[in-house]
Amino acid sequence: MIDLKxxxxxxxxxxxxxxxxxxKRTVLGMGWSVxxxxxxxxxxxxxxxxxxxxxxxxxxxxxxxxxxxFQFFSESSxxxxxxxxxxxxxxxxxxxPKYLFLLAKNVQVLINFALILAVFFVFALIDGIEFSWRLLxxxxxxxxxxxxxxxxxxxxxxxxxxxxxIDYLWSVALQxxxxxxxxxYRVDALSPSLQTLFxxxxxxxxIAYVRELVIAGSIPSPSAHLILALIAATTFALGALVYxxxxxxxxxxx
Amino acid sequence: xLKCEGVSxxxxxxxxxxxxxxxxxxxxxxxNYRVEKFWADRDISFVLNEGDMLGIIGTNGAGxxxxxxxxxxxxxxxxxxxxxxxxxxxxxxxxxGFDSQLTVKENTYLRGALLGYTRKFMDDTYKRIIDFxxxxxxxxxxxxxxxxxxxxxxxxxxxxxxxxxxxxxDEVLSVGDGAFRAKSEAKMKEIxxxxxxxxxxxxxxxxxxxxxxxxxxxxxxxxxxxTDDVKCAxxxxxxxxxxxxxx
Lengths: 254, 247
Known about the structure:
The complex is a heterodimer of chains A (254) and B (247).
Chain A: H1 8-23, H2 31-52, H3 59-86, H4 88-91, H5 99-126, H6 139-162, H7 166-179, H8 192-198, H9 202-214, H10 222-246
Helix pairs in contact in A: 1-5, 2-3, 3-5, 3-6, 3-7, 3-9, 5-6, 6-10, 9-10
Chain B: E1 2-13, H1 16-19, H2 21-30, E2 36-48, E3 53-57, H3 64-72, E4 79-84, E5 88-91, H4 104-114, H5 119-133, H6 148-160, E6 166-170, H7 178-193, E7 197-201, H8 205-211, E8 214-219, E9 222-227, H9 230-241
Parallel strand pairs in B: 3-7, 3-8, 5-6, 6-7
Antiparallel strand pairs in B: 1-2, 1-4, 8-9
């Protein structure tokens, strides 16, 4: 299914187009991609800092880990959901592999993520985090989350074509997930039954992995690695299957 | 070479998208939920060889555009088989699919990429495309500022300068002013001489008569005839349009 070599030129042009369109008519351009999570960080720090900061060491970094990973997911899923519909005028006239639209969007999100990640390192340094060689493992949760994002994107973008209401449902779901991903609070302060619920949140799994690596400076357990890989592989496979089953029918619904 | 064997393309009607979620749930519970199929094309068969130019005629809603979509690979036929050999360039509803926020140059590259060209090819051909479309002064202008005639000219130039083996033209030649029309007709004749298989949909019978060597007549999705006797078929079609003959 993935035939990127053959479609490399098209893929590059789509990524370029998405970039140009996104930052057109804004004064700050790409600055916004960094500024908006920073503003979010500032607000959360001000609102929740007084409540939680004394129990959580390196609270700024703790918050930033959560926001970093959660925004990566939420931005990718929200943009990915529309990526097929937005290009309906193209794929209903020209025979192109439609998954390229989704992948191009995810490249855009990944580049944004890289920018925020650079700022994240600066903040962590200021926050007194010691950088060790273990940080070399950081690409691991990023790659698994990327695969998870693409899988979700396949499912959402197909659903969005058949069923526009998913847009509203998804924004509610994201809202719930944001509060349920322990971005600004600690999970171990909650009741044990609630804690087990967090184990089923893939985003929380990724956030916890990054926190352990960056703040505690230790390598997460092998089972943490295995779980992330399983989440990524199953979601990606499921998404690809949904795409494969539905992509020839999109045309009738756009 | 292009071969269609018993090609049928159907649209689903009456599923939850067209009747709404509530009605869908009600019918599901009552057990009288039915999906109906509307056949835009039914059992179409023809063979084209290199150098052939097929004219597809028929009134509105005959299934011409749907058939072109199936041939170009945008749609998958519900039944039947389409065999095609060679690079296809399809010009379906020309001006659409361009991005009004990008410039002319950006759109040209994007369209080239969508049609499956390589970057090297676009770098080499870009100048010729713009020259042919007569848009030299507009290269860096936003696409939204172009007239619809200019957009169609650009679309035609991009698709026709590649020497495609199969060229599909949907109402393409009815755009642009007289001078450009003459130029594009000349260009098409050149492509056909080069051995390409071309399909033309046009409401201009005059154009079909002067360009095509085979005719496919569709009516309400059915194939009325497929013949290489262009003159006879066009005469009959004109009598049919005038109401002097029935099918």
